[in-house]
TrEMBL record:
Keyword terms: Endosome, Repeat, WD repeat
GO biological process, one term: regulation of actin cytoskeleton organization
Protein name as catalogued: Target of rapamycin complex subunit LST8
WD repeats: 1-30, 74-108, 115-156, 207-252, 253-294
Cleavable signal peptide: none
Biological classification of the source: Eukaryota, Viridiplantae, Streptophyta, Embryophyta, Tracheophyta
Length: 316
């Protein structure tokens, strides 16, 4: 069967990864993932591969094949891999793990190219749009900027002592970074370029978004502009949509019955897909705040999702 133009993948504690036709809601491919649970999914910029971050491996699957086997396995982490992502040309991959490290992998060569020590379990890693800095958040509450050019940690901050940073997100133009923590709080900073190439964090806002854990925070993509939104997915079963201009609450997405673990915007920001412990993923209209499709098929908690609906592969 031909691959749909919109690729949606979900993974669950039932040890499967499912591919869906996002428009019809039909599951057209299921991959067994017996080694561990999958913590994070990410699709390469060229739409060719899906990375699944597990414990302790990252496996790369061919999106266009029916093969149940990964095309590559990346194996030097020693604990749960909690974050994975790609450089915009797809030349390299980054990851963060509960083993306390952030790693960089050249997709064209085996083995890990670089490793940075966070000294605490890493929960989240994002790549700055400049493609030269990684920002990580860990279980002890540390946020660190890893300068890939200088190959060192260029900045370190702790928004709330001993409060785990669960999720980080950077605005597509590099102007803002948001960190969400276990207390339901989002910290927002402006990112400023210093005299050197180093990025400086200027505190902008503190948002008490939820009363329970925030499991994922996500800023809207470039083609959503001039509207800019922050989505926060929480253990309180809701996703809240905040207007970045003043951080006012725009909408609360209600319908999930359990924790909401992950979310991803469509390329134009018109839709949001969420993954929940209630075993479903949902497609939401940002205009109405209503769920317009439910993806059902997993038998346990659905904990991560990935979406690629861009007409063209994105490039730097």
């Amino acid at each position: 069967m031909t691959q749909p133009s919109v690729i949606l993948a979900t993974a669950s504690y039932d040890h499967t990864i499912r591919f869906w036709d996002a428009k019809s809601g039909r599951c057209y491919r299921t991959i067994q993932y017996p080694d561990s649970q999958v913590n994070r999914l990410e699709i390469t910029p060229d739409k060719r591969y899906l990375a699944a971050a597990g414990n302790p491996h990252i496996k790369l699957f061919d999106v266009n094949s029916n093969s149940p086997h990964p095309v590559m396995s990346y194996d030097s982490h020693t604990a749960n891999v909690m974050a994975v992502g790609f450089q915009c040309d797809g030349n390299w991959m980054y990851s963060g793990s509960e083993d306390g490290t952030v790693k960089i992998w050249d997709l064209r060569a085996p083995g890990c190219q670089r490793e940075y020590e966070s000294r605490a379990a890493v929960n989240t890693v994002v790549l700055h749009p400049n493609q030269t800095e990684l920002i990580s958040g860990d279980q002890n509450g540390n946020i660190r900027v890893w300068d890939l050019t200088a190959n060192s940690c260029s900045c370190e901050l702790v928004p709330e002592v001993d409060t785990a940073v669960r999720s980080l997100t950077v605005m597509w133009d590099g102007s803002l970074v948001v960190a969400a923590n276990n207390h339901g709080t989002c910290y927002v900073w402006r990112l400023l370029r210093g005299n050197q190439t180093m990025t400086n964090f200027e505190p902008l806002h503190k948002l008490q978004a939820h009363n329970k854990y925030i499991l994922k925070c996500l800023l809207s993509p470039e083609f959503c502009d001039p509207h800019r939104y922050l989505a926060t997915a929480s253990a309180d079963h809701t996703v809240k949509i905040w207007n970045v201009d003043g951080f006012t609450l725009e909408k609360t997405l209600t319908g999930h019955q359990r924790w909401v673990w992950d979310c991803v915007f469509s390329v134009d920001g018109a839709y949001l897909i969420t993954a929940s412990s209630d075993m479903t993923a949902r497609l939401w209209s940002m205009a109405s705040g209503e769920a317009i499709r439910v993806y059902q098929g997993h038998h346990k908690a659905t904990v991560c999702c990935a979406l690629h609906d861009g007409a063209e592969p994105s490039s730097c």
